[in-house]
Amino acid sequence: MSTPLLHVTAIDAFYGDFQALFGVSLAVEAGQVVAVIGANGAGKSTLLRTIAGLMHPRRGDIAFDGASIAQMPAFDVVKRGVALVPEGRRLFPSLSVEENLLIGGQSKRPGPWTLQRIYNLFPVLAERRHLPATSLSGGQQQMAAIGRALMSNPRLMLCDEISLGLAPIIVRDIYARLPEIAGEGLSLVIVEQDIVQALRAASHVYCLQEGRVALEGEAKGLTREAISAAYFGV
Amino acid sequence: MTLWLNIILQGVLIGGLYAMFAAGLSLIFGVMRLVNIAHGDLIVLAAYVALMVTTGLGLDPLTSLVLVVPAMALIGYALQRGLLNRTLGDDLLPPLLVTFGLSIIIQNGLLELFTADSRKLQAGTLEVLTFQALPGVWVGALPLIQFAVAVVVIAGLQILFYKTALGRAFRATSDDQAVAQLMGLDTRHVFAMAMSLSLAVVAIAGVFLAVRANFDPSIGPARLIFGFEAVIIGGLGSLWGTLIGGVILGVSQAIGAQIDPGWQLLAGHIAFLVILALRPQGFFPKVSH
Amino acid sequence: MSTVQHATRSSHIGIAIIAIGFVVLTAAPAWGDRNTLRLLAELFTYLALASLWNLLAGYAGLVSVGQQAFVGFGGYLLFALAMLAGVHPIAAIFIAGPVAALLAVPVAALIFRLRGAYFAIGTWVVAEVFRLLASQISALGGGSGISLPAAVVIAMAPTRQIREFEIYWLALGLAVMVLAAIVVLLRSRHGLALTALRDNELAAQSNGIDVGRIKLIVYVLVAAGTAMVGALIFLMKLRISPDTAFSVNDWTAFVIFIVVVGGIGRVEGPVIGTVIFFVMRQTLADLGSLYLLIMGAVAIVVMLAAPKGLWGLLADRFGWQALPLQRRLVLEPKEKRL
User: Fold this and answer.
1) Chains that touch A (3 or more CB pairs under 8 A)
2) Structurally, how many domains does chain B consist of?
């Protein structure tokens, strides 16, 4: 096997004195979709925030494309091709829909994604391009958040709880576009509480429990029992 | 009648200067929620920088802006990167007290270097040039230029804020610092750019202040207060509001001075307090305070 | 069963030192010369002002840069009462407190509309308004100020020495009173709320603390205390003018320096800070404006490097508290065995 695109090796992460991640390791190959599942507070978001550079591991390493990004600030990590779609969308309320997308392209990485291609992918955003981001519905906001991340032309996109607070039909709609997005050779890490969606989209699954990897394997090879055991620790 | 027209016109024109004091203050509050207590002292610092440039190089005050503006912008960038970025966070005290300390340092530093003597920048014939706007109503060329510059500065800031990539970065960083970093924005740099821009405006305000009247190292805090009053009257976070705020303040002071010279400043403060009592959100509010 | 304990071993030692210090200082007229008494009296007024500002900014989160409004108001009220109404100056000091409290209510109603740092500048505007109004009062000397008439001064005490002793004890008494009032307040039910407020305003609010009301109470009380100290300060100076009475440097910048360097949000902070301030002033004052420049720089460095001040450093390191303010849950032995 070749060197993975993203290689997280035994990282410990802390909020002050509180340890949130214990020796977590994870690998993502180029073009692969990896799901990270786990209960609330298992450390899923912390893992993504640490990879994105919003926080830094106290021990362990994060290698991206062969170079360590563990201690790199978030604004440099994105320039290397890692984009995070944050939990709760977090669009900029003072910016219009189009400005939100444009600021996603701030890092000026070359690549296939342009404003026009985002609008082709999510036509509803084109209709509302000049409205404030706050005027969008929850599902549209999620589309804009994904579009904003894509605008940096990432090689790896980290998606934190895309389905959170959205109606099931909208979640299915958004997940239906993922293959089109991943078709560009983009790798994805999807954090989800919705296990069914996650298993359907991903080829490889990691299950976190209280800050540790409790289970990992091919999405197809995992039994429901093994997952619930890892999920709930029973 | 023409007496009062003259007075109000003078007030409106000086309002432009106050608007420039206010715009710089409003800008950095908008981007990083920082209230710079040293703002007024930085205006006075700009006046002294202009004094050195005009006397050292023999330039006239308005031309000196070519050097004073970049110099102050540079100071602003360095100040933010070197000192003020360290104070930003959830706690209100550090930025407030550090800029208060800075205010004392600037005042006493200027006192050491330039003594307490009053200074003034000489703008030559421009200072005495006046013309008749209406029968009996006279306008000085310099106040008019000052007001026009204020309008241009505020319009420029408005365009920069809402039409450029830098302005987008300012607004995004103001909304959500963490996500702004995920967009590749180094917020320390964004903040430094905002302070740099604020001090560029401060430089223009400082030069006009120094041409208009005498200045000495102690007059900074009063300028901070005028700027602050204009910001609140106009409504927090609104750039055009600062112009309205500055004009209301200027006119109030002019009317107060006409009634009794001792009432000039008092009338301005009272106008501010009345507006705070009746319309605390100001006239064009953008940000809740 | 469990009880709440305030005292620790260091606070027992602290109380003992404070008691001895109080006796020694009360006896100062017996051992100190005139200049020492004067310096100590001035030190006490700064200690009181700094403790009040600390309560306001350090606990209630009301960062004011306009407390000179109340210092000057107290001073002017004393001059007005003594000169125009024939009130005994010492009585005037105690009248200044409640009058300032009354005045503080409408002032608060206005400036509480401003939040955070804008509140700070709002307080400054109020102080400016007070200064400009004072300079309009021609009966009290207008813009150039006025001296307390010799007759009023002489009537205070039979001899100059006794008058100086009186003023010394007044300054000591006022400082002790202010400190005691703050300690009592912090140990009361409101004190718990104030400490919660200091640590986290949002959390305090969500725990049902009426933050607005507490802040108003503190603002008004601090105004009253500050005005009383102000009245005493100008009784000591015997002369008042708008610029000295409402000086932002003397009554706010120095006071903030004391609190920041000593340790904000701790009762002990201003005590240490006042001592440091007077030591610095006695050694550096000859440098003039350079001395102020150094003070500004020291305050900035402390704010960035040790935001809890000198006392904060000591307290964190050794678990010290000089006053029994801390609340510790003490478990009875039975439960301790758990």
Assistant:
1) B
2) 1
